[in-house]
Design brief:
The termini are far apart. It is built from 18 helices and 14 strands. It has about 475 residues and is of the alpha/beta class. The strands form three sheets. The chain has a six-stranded parallel β-sheet, sandwiched between helices. Strands 11-10-9-12-13-14 form a six-stranded parallel β-sheet. The chain binds uridine-5'-diphosphate-glucuronic acid (UGA). The site of uridine-5'-diphosphate-glucuronic acid has 20 residues, from helix 10.
């Protein structure tokens, strides 16, 4: 089919490349002329595993880039809207880009078209898009609007698209349903998986993707409810981790027991410094705002956000507990992206923690395998130093902080690290190492939800000193509802 994808951000670019990969003719549109020029030159504006291969494979063939919404709409049977919906402050997403695109699409509709909303949006957005299309001259009967939320994670977005847990089709009429079924048929009937040279999936055997058909409003709700639920799961496990740490239990063991319950599941139980990124923080606030508009007080979500921010403060507190004062302390930082596998630093807990440390007078030298360019935009050189690799970031430092879960950090040469560092102190906000292994390597190793190990192999200096950080804030009053 002939498709247009409006917006070349993370979601738009991955969707356009993957739609081309499953056999469609795609025009990928952005109003940023420089970005379109870059894409046409073969450059890839974001760090996303497998995206460069897909762009290389389809660019100039099934995948074209354009800056004209009108031309792309005219040439396409279905148009995906994948423009940004950033937080406008106060929890409401800024929907102006979606509105502007809808208005522009309206002027180019001359034959029946499907308009598919794929950006993360509050419930009832499809309804608003329909109104805008009509107001801007798209005749009734000339278009249908559907919701097709994406569940892509940065870092694994390509395989998430091609091998999805589910494809949600939010449709209010037969035309939308038929069109969306045709678009996704290579995945839902599995023809894509039987071809030679396809992008390999996460499992040995690829099953055809499961389709869930709902109305548009339910699909819109599924997206917000899923992201808010996952964020809640992370805040929950972080609180459990803080309790585990305070009482000397081990969060890894707790998660093994907890996640083995099929009703809970093992995923998204990784304790750490909290969630970040362009989705969870914004979507939790936006979903709470949707509830508020409906007269519903979804206070649970305020707690999810509060706990998430508190988790960053807890980590800074742990750095203080390890080093006492922070003024002029030389800290190495590994990881600035909001998670491993991406160059995205939006709402990154790592960046928030570095900012706090700088406020207290620490000197920071950081390294990230992919996010240094984007990090420099928010933490200019001068505020911090940037290293060329992990060992340079750690060299002559009082402590090393692990703030992003890049797999390569978990494979660091501990002996080399121990040799280059001034003091053998590591604070791991992502639980990348086994505490026993770190203690055996001579490190004073602080992680999240796991007790500090002090062994005989450590320098004498550590013995008899109480290092245990204060993991939970001291309660000033008993929490409401707790039995006396
Ligand atoms: C998230 C959702 O997982 C996707 O399904 C969704 O499509 C996407 O948002 C979106 O709305 O566009 P993403 O933000 O790319 O994807 O990344 P996640 O892998 O979900 O991680 C989000 C944050 O939670 C990261 O900071 C990560 O480090 C943190 N996290 C994740 C934890 O702290 N613990 C975990 O167990 C899992």
């Amino acid at each position: 089919m002939r498709l247009a994808v409006i917006g070349c951000g993370y979601v738009g670019l991955v969707s356009a490349a993957c739609l081309a990969e499953i056999g469609h003719e795609v025009i990928s549109v952005d109003t940023d002329l420089e970005k379109i020029a870059e894409l046409n030159r073969g450059e890839v504006p974001i760090h996303e595993h497998l995206l460069p291969q897909l762009l290389e494979r389809h660019r100039g063939k099934r995948l074209k880039f354009s800056s004209s919404v009108g031309d792309a709409v005219k040439q396409s049977e279905a148009v995906f809207i994948t423009v940004g919906t950033p937080d406008s402050g106060g929890g409401e997403p800024d929907m102006s880009a979606v509105e502007a695109v809808a208005a522009e699409i309206a002027g180019s509709i001359s034959e029946p078209k499907l308009i598919v909303e794929k950006s993360t949006v509050p419930v009832c957005t499809c309804e608003s898009i329909r109104k805008v299309l009509l107001l801007h001259g798209a005749g009734t009967g000339r278009f249908s609007v559907a919701s097709n939320p994406e569940f892509l994670r940065e870092g694994t977005a390509v395989t998430d698209f091609l091998y999805p847990d589910r494809i949600v089709l939010g449709v209010d009429d037969d035309f939308s349903a038929a069109m969306l079924y045709s678009i996704y048929r290579p995945l839902t009937e599995g023809a894509y998986y039987r071809q030679a040279g396809v992008i390999p999936g996460p499992h040995a055997k690829a099953e055809p993707a499961r389709v869930i058909v709902t109305n548009a409003k339910s699909a819109e709700l599924i997206k917000h409810a899923a992201n808010a639920f996952l964020a809640m799961k992370i805040s929950y496990i972080n609180m459990v981790a803080n309790i585990a740490e305070a009482v000397g239990a081990d969060i890894d063991q707790v998660c093994t027991g907890l996640g083995a319950d099929a009703r809970i599941g093992p995923q998204f139980l990784q304790a750490g410094i909290g969630y970040g990124g362009s989705c969870f923080p914004k979507d939790v606030a936006a979903f709470q705002n949707v509830a508020f508009q409906c007269g519903i007080d979804f206070a649970l979500l305020s707690e999810v956000t509060r706990i998430n921010l508190e988790q960053q403060r807890q980590f800074v507190k742990k750095v203080r507990a390890a080093l006492w004062t922070l003024r002029n302390k030389r800290l190495g930082v590994l990881g600035l992206a909001f998670k491993g596998g991406t160059d995205d630093v939006r709402e990154s807990p790592a960046i928030a923690i570095v900012r706090e440390l700088l406020k207290e007078g620490a000197q920071v030298c950081a390294y990230d395998p992919a996010a240094m360019v984007k990090a420099r935009e928010v933490l200019p050189a001068g505020a911090i130093e940037y290293a060329e690799n992990e060992y340079q970031a750690a060299a002559r430092r009082d402590a090393l902080l692990l703030l992003t879960d890049w797999p390569q950090f978990a494979r660091l040469d501990l002996h080399k690290l121990r040799t280059v560092m001034k003091l053998p102190i590591i604070l791991d906000g992502r639980n990348l190492f086994n505490p026993n292994q770190m203690a055996a390597a001579g490190f004073l190793y602080y992680s999240v939800g796991r007790a500090l190990r002090v062994t005989e192999t450590m320098p004498n200096l550590w013995h008899g000193v109480r290092f245990a950080p204060q993991a939970v804030p001291v309660m000033t009053a008993r929490p409401e509802g707790l039995p006396v």
